[in-house]
Design goal:
The chain is α/β, with parallel strands linked by helices. The chain has a domain of about 180 residues: Aldolase class I (TIM Barrel), CATH 3.20.20.70. The protein contains 11 helices and 8 strands. It has an 8-stranded parallel beta sheet with strand order 7-6-5-4-3-2-1-8, covered by helices on one side. α1 runs parallel beside α11 and α5 packs across α7. The protein is globular. The two termini are about 15 Å apart.
């Protein structure tokens, strides 16, 4: 049975003090929760990864990076390698986030190389994808999602998928206050699972966790998380307040 996951992407927020304080508050809040079959992730900015890993040591919290480079090392100023992440205790990375695609022009070829590098280091990958508003208006959202998955992930072996978590992001519902309805989320997640089953098999499809990543908050989390093929959430704004983030964990 696949796990439920609640992952907080802190993006470019929180300095060192704010990051360690938030991490400590989440750790304290989790101490009274039973987290059977639930994984909690938090992804602080890269400069605070080691400090947050230290603060959360011993807690049922996975600390994830927000990005990494596809090369082992080299003349790539400002970038971070898989080995560097692992040296500070980080073995999970978010790849393909819509903001990386939009603002830094990350395409399928680049993301496929990043995925390959992460897998070479046996890292867990939270792979993000999803359609823009115009794609949905033109009824192209299923095609867009299929192409994003096929181009970056469908070269993987079935065994590789043990390291993959998918995060569907309807881009039109990120930071806009808009949210896909629970029915829309379920429809897309079911489509994704069927697509994986067609390319691989039912076992791979049923084992992969598919998170919803579009403005989940305490007021709508329970209904979204209750959908059959929604296995949790990749949370942005609501992960920056411990009270809200802990409420989302309780909702799952």
């Amino acid at each position: 049975m696949r796990k439920k996951i609640v992952a907080g992407n802190w993006k470019m927020n929180n300095d060192l003090s704010a990051s360690t304080t938030l991490a400590a508050e989440i750790k304290a809040g989790l101490s009274s929760m039973a987290l059977t079959d639930i994984e909690v992730m938090i992804a602080p900015t890269s400069v605070n990864l080691q400090a947050v890993a230290e603060v959360t040591k011993g807690a049922p919290i996975t600390v994830a990076a927000q990005n990494m480079h596809y090369a082992e090392n080299g003349a790539f100023t400002g970038e971070i390698s898989a080995k560097m992440l692992q040296s500070v205790g980080v073995n999970t990375v978010i790849l393909g986030h819509s903001e990386r695609r939009a603002y830094f022009n990350e395409d399928a070829n680049l993301l496929a190389k990043k995925v390959e590098q992460a897998l070479e280091h046996q890292m867990k990958i939270v792979f993000c994808f999803g359609e823009q508003l115009e794609d949905r208006k033109e009824n192209q959202h299923f095609n867009v999602v299929e192409n994003q998955l096929r181009d970056a992930l469908f070269q993987l072996t079935p065994a590789d998928w043990q390291h993959i978590v998918l995060a569907y992001e309807p881009v039109w519902a990120i930071g806009t206050g808009e949210t896909a309805s629970p029915a829309q989320a379920q429809e897309m997640h079911a489509f994704i699972r069927e697509l994986i089953a067609e390319h691989y098999d039912e076992e791979v499809a049923e084992d992969v966790c598919i998170l919803y990543g579009g403005s989940v908050k305490p007021s709508n989390a329970k209904e979204i998380f209750s959908q059959k093929d929604v296995d949790g959430g990749l949370i942005g704004g609501a992960s920056l307040k411990s009270e809200d983030f802990l409420a989302l964990i309780k909702a799952i």
